[in-house]
Specification:
InterPro entries: MerB (IPR004927), MerB_lyase_sf (IPR053717). The protein has 194 residues and is α+β, with helices and mostly antiparallel strands. The protein has helices spanning 21-26, 30-46, 63-72, 112-122, 168-171, and strands at residues 76-78, 84-87, 90-91, 98-101, 106-108, 126-131, 138-144, 147-151, 156-157, 178-179. The radius of gyration is 17 Å and the shape is globular. The relative contact order is 0.14.
Length: 194
């Protein structure tokens, strides 16, 4: 996985005016955006990561070229064998953030934020299951008809990033789980610890 713009900083995710991730992604050629949508649909429909050979060269661009562009702007990453391992919000590995949209397959989200995005991306109802990283207590978030129900109700999403790394899959997603705010004592982190 590569990161063309250096270490990821959370504020760069939303920067549409400068060189941030959002600006780079919105500047992708339409054909690369089509390949991106193909990859996302493959995950959503099957629950499995597509392989490069499963993606047809039918979007008016060479798929390998489009996948390279998607990698550069941190949207899709492949392993050495050509299998997609990351296509935000989807993960090809078990992450502890599972999502089921309607009666579809079980999906793995890269992080809690991505899990919340999957029902909205699909435009369907969904159920997210996770566990508190401190005490292992189950967390369930349901989206039904556009309304959200969180159990436990005190559940939050932690957003942090580790320093000195590149793509979101490596430095942001592992640090962004669901967590309950029940009675368990919580560690307090300072800026230099995140």
């Amino acid at each position: 996985m590569t990161a063309a713009s250096g270490p990821l900083r959370i504020e760069l995710l939303c920067d549409r005016d400068g060189g941030g991730v959002a600006a780079q992604q919105s500047a992708l050629p339409p054909a690369a955006q089509d390949v991106h949508r193909m990859v996302l649909r493959a995950f959503l429909n099957s629950g499995d990561a597509p392989h490069r050979r499963d993606l047809p060269d039918s979007c008016g661009v060479e798929v390998d070229e489009a996948l390279d562009l998607l990698d550069e702007v941190d949207l899709v990453h492949l392993d050495a064998e050509g299998r997609v391992v990351v296509a935000y919000p989807f993960a090809a590995r078990i992450t502890g953030q599972t999502v089921r949209v309607d009666a579809g397959p079980v999906l793995q989200a890269m992080c809690a934020i991505d899990a919340l995005g999957i029902p909205m991306l699909a435009g369907r109802d969904g159920v997210i299951e996770s566990a508190d990283p401190l005490d292992g207590q189950p967390i369930r978030v349901e989206c039904t008809g556009g309304s959200w129900r969180w159990a436990p109700a005190e559940t939050v999403v932690l957003l942090a990033s580790s320093a000195e790394c590149g793509v979101a899959a490596e430095c942001l997603c592992p640090e962004s789980p669901f967590a309950g705010l029940g009675t368990a004592p919580r560690p307090i982190f300072t800026a230099d610890q995140t």
